[in-house]
Amino acid sequence: MDIVNHQLNKAELRRTLLKTRQSMCVQEWREKSDRICSHLQNSTLFSQAKTILAYFSFRQEPDLSPLFTDSKYRWGFPRCVDKSLRWHIWQPNNSIQSGAYGIPEPYPDAPILDAAEVDLILVPSVACDYQGYRLGYGGGYYDRLLSLPQWQTKPTIGIVFEFAYLSQIPIEPWDKPLQAVYTELVMRHNLIFRKDNFPY
């Protein structure tokens, strides 16, 4: 497949899945989001973590906010700064603002989180496939983050609804699979965490 068709296929797939996601009624979105939260709470990767990077739901992404009140964990959320993600500690009583692309994010003066402190990353995704590869939103923020040496060895869980868990998605040479994918039907994919998954 040539590069142009490959990119068109990704864009079309992204558009179709986002449309499907945003067409969900609020009740269905809430119920499926709550199921994902329950599955995460029962997972070893999640329960053994102390500092977890997450996201604020945007455009009907699975909503993980019921988890954020659990004081057992320290939560980090991203701000888009130029072409990279900067992570901040956030607590339920802290304010959030509308940042790049209208995505909710912490205020710039919130405490910064360093990669060395992070135990797990919950990765927002348009889709994930059976191999653990992720289709993002096209900005490349998480691709750039997860290719950096200090982030490469961090466990990652892709979060999608079941309709966006696909047999295969178009991938690029630099794409790396996530360790696990969770949908409302429980964990759908799990790679044994090995350093040789990360060639860089």
Largest sheet: 7 strands, mixed
Oligomer: single chain
Mean pLDDT: 89
Termini separation: 26 Å
Low-pLDDT segments: 192-200
Count, helices: 4
Rg from C-alpha positions? Answer: 16 Å
* Spatial ordering of strands, largest sheet: 3-2-1-6-9-11-12
- Helix/strand order, N-terminal first: HHHEEEEEEEEHEEEE
User: Structural class of the secondary structure composition?
Assistant: alpha/beta
- Sheet-strand content, in percent, reads 15-25%
Number of strands: 12
Shape: globular
Give a description of the structure.
With 200 residues, the chain is α/β, with parallel strands linked by helices. 24% of the residues lie in helices and 24% in strands. The protein is globular and about 40 Å long. Residues 192-200 have low confidence and may be disordered.
Features of the shown structure:
alpha/beta, disordered C terminus, seven-stranded mixed β-sheet
In brief, what are we looking at here?
The chain has 200 residues and is α/β, with parallel strands linked by helices. 24% of the residues lie in helices and 24% in strands. The longest helix has 20 residues, at 3-22.
Topology of helices and strands:
Layout: H1 3-22, H2 26-41, H3 44-47, E1 51-53, E2 74-81, E3 84-90, E4 96-98, E5 104-106, E6 120-124, E7 127-129, E8 134-135, H4 141-147, E9 156-159, E10 165-166, E11 180-183, E12 186-190
Parallel strand pairs: 1-2, 1-6, 6-9, 7-10, 9-11
Antiparallel strand pairs: 2-3, 4-5, 7-8, 11-12
